[in-house]
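Hi,

I'm pasting everything inline rather than attaching a file, because the server keeps stripping attachments. The sequence lines come first, and each chain or strand is labelled.
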Amino acid sequence: MSTGTTIIDDDDDVQEHREHGAPLSEVELRVRALESLLVDKGLVEPAALDALIDTYETKVGPRNGAKIVARVGRSGVQAPPPGGRHERGGAEHGFVGRQSEKLVVVENTPTVHNMVVCTLCSCYPWAVLGLPPVWYKSAPYRSRAVIDPRGVLSELGVRVPADTEVRVWDSTAEIRYMVLPERPAGTERLSEAQLAELVTRDAMIGVATVPGPGAGR
Amino acid sequence: MRRSKRGVVALDHGVWVFPDSAGNGLGRKPQHCYSVRFEARELWGDDATSRDAIYIDLWDDHLEPAMSTPTCPCCPPFPVTTRDRCSAHPGRPRPSPWP
Amino acid sequence: MNGGHDLGGMHGFGPVEIERHEPVFHHEWERRAFAITLAAGFLGKWNIDQSRFAREQMPPAEYLATTYYEHWLFGLEKLLHDQGLVSRDEVAARLLGRGGEARPGGRCTDAQGQRRRAGPARRAGRRRPTRRSRRATGWAIA
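And the predicted assembly:
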């Protein structure tokens, strides 16, 4: 792995492990204060807050997008033309965006590699991929994905041949993009569910490829 | 800030509320949103690869035709140029998307 | 004029840092910030474009030095204050432990509904193609 990418493992002290009795940070205090005011004023319901957290922490995630990818690849839903885009709403595959935004699925081929970014904030197809990872929302990715996509891809382990076109899609709140990754060889006999298991979130953002069955993931 | 960049409308996403207006409480100003293809070299100069492209979602107010005479529907995708000055309201909340 | 959030093509931000097995939320306050922002949005007092604009008002240096959900918190506080729902003075008072005057009533939010009210409005059924789009429709880069 090149020195351009920093991998933070579980063993690293990434997450804050506050010692028992340690004071809350300013931001923690502000969030608590704001939440208590909103609840006290009757503007939000605690049950609604818990439901939102549960929905996006446990129920909505990349498995939704993986099902779409597997369905397109397996069950005869018409795939977009090579290098083209699949302009069907997420609702057509059973997933509706939080604000009914439009989902555009762009297909990777041997000659075209797509990747998605939101340079202005973090627009991301929540309904099919869940909440975006920190790196997607970070200044390094948002700034470099559009000007040095091959460099970013290389750092993330994706080698794009020189004669393959890289297309970077800058998303907005209204239109969200998802990548239809190339189907790896050796998956012809897999069921739709088995195919879906292979598809990763990063492949649907366009910064990873889908490994073949049995390959290390 | 990069303006007056030449691109080609690749996708017409349809009519949407214009964020630059709605975000400032200045009305919906519905208009078309397009995915506009810019060649990498158009944005980043000759140091960029000649093969890659960036697709940016832009609205009618961000664009103007790159040619003065209309083209027929069977002609290649419609070329546009990003405006020198966005025609949205001054003090709009979201700057015209780069470039 | 661009704000600190307009990052496309900028240099100097270093490598893309990947966290293996990254959790959806790293801290409990992030969960709560996320939830109260969405729930407050269901009140229908602002649209998604206004919510993004509110976050983009963060001073650039502060924007780049703070985390994603801190941007959300900034935006939410601004929106609530501007809409007269929760003032900054009330937040300050609550932080000092003096508490605010609880006002019963108001609207209850349902996490399962009203999401579309705060989102972007697609003018379904009212496509009014411009002169440019009539030419552009249906063409795609091969």
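Strands of chain A lie at 6-8, 85-86, 102-107, 112-117, 165-170, 175-180.

If the labels don't parse on your end, tell me and I'll reformat.
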